[in-house]
C-alpha cells in the first residue's frame, strides 16, 4: 500500500475498478483506497482474487467491496452499477481497467479471437463508461467532495500508438480506446466529467507473464524500455490517484503514458 502519510485525496469518494482482482487493477484499487476512496473491486471469474484485494485494502484500514460483472455483457454491467448505487448511493470514479490478450498471427486470426478482445477491451469500456457517466449526471455536482462531477480513467496501453504485429486485435482495441476516451472527454466536459487514459508500458502482471518467462526474454523486453526497469502495478496506481484527484482538475482528454520511455522509439537512441 502507498505510504501511511497519504493525504487522503479521494476521501468520501466511491470508485469502481474493473478487473480489480489482479495485476494493474489490484494496484490501482489499493492506491485509490489508500487515498480514502471506497473501492468496488470488479471481477469476472475470480471471486477469490477480488476477495483477496478487498482483504488487503481492509487490513490497511481502507474500505472495499467485491462486485461481479463480465464487462462485455450489458445486463451484467447494468446489474453491477445498480448494486453499487444500492450499497453506496453513487459513484465518483471509474477506472476502466479490464482487458485481455488473445494473440494470433494475422493470417490465422479467427473472428472469435478478434471479437473476444474487442468485446472485453473496447465494448466493455464503452458500457462501463456510459453507465458511470449516466450516474454522474443523475447525481450532479458535489463540489464539497470533488471539483469534477465524475472522473473516468481508461486503461489504454502504449499500443494505442505503437503498432503490434501478432496482436492486431489488442492493438486495435487500444487505438479504439484512444478515440473513445477523447470523444467522451469532448462530449462530457460541459457536465464537468473528466475522461483520461493511462498508457502503461510493460508492467509485471499475469497478462504478460509469458513474455518474461526466461532471463533472455526479460532482457529482450528491457531493450524496449529506456528507463531500464519493468513497471509495477503500484507505478500505475499512483498515476490513477493523480488523475482521479482534484490535482488534475484541468486535465481531460489526455493519455498519460507511464512506460519508462517505451513510446520514445528506443530503436533510434543509437543514431537509428
Ligand atoms: P491482468 O490479466 O492481471 O488483468 C486483467 C483483468 O481484467 C483481470 O482482473 C481479469 O479478470 C479482468 N477481465 C478479463 N476479462 C474480463 C471481463 N470480461 N469482465 C471483467 N473483467 C475482465 O493484466 P493487467 O496487465 O493487470 O491488465 C490490466 C489492464 O492494463 C488491461 O486493460 C491491459 O490491456 C492494460 N495494460 C497492461 C500492460 C502490462 O504490461 N501489464 C500494459 C499496457 C496495458
TrEMBL record:
GO biological process, one term: monocarboxylic acid metabolic process
Protein family (similarity comment): Belongs to the short-chain dehydrogenases/reductases (SDR) family.
GO MF terms, alphabetically ordered: glucose 1-dehydrogenase [NAD(P)+] activity
PROSITE patterns: ADH_SHORT
SUPFAM superfamilies (UniProt xref): NAD(P)-binding Rossmann-fold domains (SSF51735)
UniProt-recorded name of the protein: Glucose 1-dehydrogenase
Enzyme Commission number(s) of this protein: 1.1.1.47
The organism's taxonomic lineage, starting at the top: Bacteria, Pseudomonadati, Bacteroidota, Cytophagia, Cytophagales
Keywords: Oxidoreductase
Superkingdom assignment: Bacteria
Amino acid at each position: 500500500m502507498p505510504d501511511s502519510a497519504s493525504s487522503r485525496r479521494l476521501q468520501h469518494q466511491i470508485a469502481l475498478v474493473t478487473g480489480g482482482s489482479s495485476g494493474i487493477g489490484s494496484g490501482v484499487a489499493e492506491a485509490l483506497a489508500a487515498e480514502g476512496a471506497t473501492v468496488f473491486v470488479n471481477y469476472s471469474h475470480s471471486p477469490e482474487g477480488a476477495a483477496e484485494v478487498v482483504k488487503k485494502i481492509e487490513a490497511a484500514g481502507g474500505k472495499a467491496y467485491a462486485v461481479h460483472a463480465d464487462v462485455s455483457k450489458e445486463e451484467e454491467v447494468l446489474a453491477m452499477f445498480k448494486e453499487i448505487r444500492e450499497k453506496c448511493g453513487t459513484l465518483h470514479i471509474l477506472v476502466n481497467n479490464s482487458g485481455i490478450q488473445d494473440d494470433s498471427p494475422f493470417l490465422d486470426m479467427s473472428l472469435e479471437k478478434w471479437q473476444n478482445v474487442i468485446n472485453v477491451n473496447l465494448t466493455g469500456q464503452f458500457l462501463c463508461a456510459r453507465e458511470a457517466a449516466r450516474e454522474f449526471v443523475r447525481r450532479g455536482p458535489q463540489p464539497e467532495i470533488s471539483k469534477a462531477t465524475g472522473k473516468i480513467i481508461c486503461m489504454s496501453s502504449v499500443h494505442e500508438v505503437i503498432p503490434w504485429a501478432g496482436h492486431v486485435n489488442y492493438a486495435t482495441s487500444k487505438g479504439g480506446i484512444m478515440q473513445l476516451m477523447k470523444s467522451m472527454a469532448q462530449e462530457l466536459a460541459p457536465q464537468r466529467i473528466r475522461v483520461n487514459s493511462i498508457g502503461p508500458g510493460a508492467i509485471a502482471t499475469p497478462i504478460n507473464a509469458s513474455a518474461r518467462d526466461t532471463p533472455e526474454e526479460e532482457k529482450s523486453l528491457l531493450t524496449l524500455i529506456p528507463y531500464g526497469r519493468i513497471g509495477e502495478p503500484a507505478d500505475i496506481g499512483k498515476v490513477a490517484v493523480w488523475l482521479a484527484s482534484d490535482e488534475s482538475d484541468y486535465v481531460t482528454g489526455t493519455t498519460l503514458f507511464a512506460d519508462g520511455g517505451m513510446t520514445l522509439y528506443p530503436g533510434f537512441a543509437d543514431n537509428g
